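ok so i was messing around last nite and threw this chain in just to see what happens. nothing serious, just curious
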Amino acid sequence: MEEALLDIQDLVIHYEKRNGAVRAVEGLNLRLKRGETLGFVGETGAGKTTTALGIMRLLPVPPGRVVSGKILFNGENLLDKGEEEMRSIRGGKIAMIFQDPMTSLNPVITIDEQIAEMIALHSGLSHRDSISRALEMLELVGIRRERAGDYPHQFSGGMKQRVVIAIALACSPELLIADEPTTALDVTIQAQVLGLMKDLRRQFSTSLLLVTHDLGIVAESCDDTAIMYAGRIVEYAPTAELFGNPLHPYTRGLFNSIPKITGGKGDLMTIPGLTPDPSNLPPGCPFHPRCGLAVPECSSGIRAPLEAGEGHYSACPVTLGGRR
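result:
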């Protein structure tokens, strides 16, 4: 199998509380190949952002804690790195676009200085050369040089997101993690930002982990897609294969809940019940209390995803014909 740029193995992350642990990520396995985009899909509370913060080693400690597992980047386990070494990796080799551009920028520093700070930190360039590089990055993301001395409050939400992208890509990282990069933007600006990210990813040969709950964005942007539920990957496949042949009942439920532009009027299909409390997960498959295909054995143990076709994995043995 081709060596992955990012290979997460059996990752377990908990948030410790006085009355027990919140099991945010449970036995997660994930691979991202070089130069490709992986869509990381799940509803709020599934553990997507916790996984992203775990990769960056930015979990709030306490209460966050990596209990076990490996996060291999270029074959090296990030969990074995010291804090000083991780500071050189963050921004230089792995960069992250956080969920809210409104709070990702320092309100009292001009944007050219914020970009230049990242460049100087990882490249060793002088302040003058770092500013020059920052101006080039602003132009790459569609912001005129004349705006370089402005402060974040002088920009719209879409422009702030462009600045955040410029900061993330300033040092040509090998891996870019985008955590819901278009959540706070209107539809038109969403399309512009996604198109910009796609173009810049090709230009900088950067792999992208795109964290989202929007299947439309996944269809447009991703090579492969991983579906996450209650801290686990329940289905993983090439995006076209996943959209054409979803296997896990949760994945099918997500697709069935999307409004159709064809066909007659009617109520949207929904998934019954609620996402389980991560501090009190049900036994066995975490989706079985909401699943219309559940059989008694679904509550008796966790099933590892099995390969249903080339590169297509599902954690539901029922839809895979009872294979274990």
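not much to say yet. The mean pLDDT is 88.
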